[in-house]
Amino acid sequence: MESARRPPAKSTVQVDNDRTRVTEWRFPPGAATGWHRHGFDYVVVPMTTGVLRLEGPDGTRDAQLTAGSAYFRALGVEHDVINASPHEFVFVEVEFKDSAVSA
Question: Which residues, given as ranges, of the chain have pLDDT below 50?
């Protein structure tokens, strides 16, 4: 997989309890999270402005993000997230554990 050749993004969990997990993600230029599936609803709050490349099952797209402009996604999203900016990109991710659906 191509992401294996990319440097890894660094995650630091700041809060982790029964209801939420808050993680800071730091991406040097070109760094990636690696392919993953979100098991919870989540909100991302960009701390910097820049471009993240999202590689998903339906293709690749670039997202221009602005510091302080949060967005929400429902559980189930599958993707690899890559910093396509020429500088470090940082965001905070807040996951809502009570949104997990048990089958």
Answer: 1-3, 103
- Take residue 16 and report the two structure tokens written for it: 């982790």
Per-residue pLDDT reduced to its tens digit, 42-64: 999 999 999 999 999 999 999 99
Q: Residue ranges of the domains in the chain?
A: 2-99
Q: What pLDDT does 5 receive?
A: 85
* Superfamily name with CATH number, domain 2-99: Jelly Rolls (2.60.120.10)
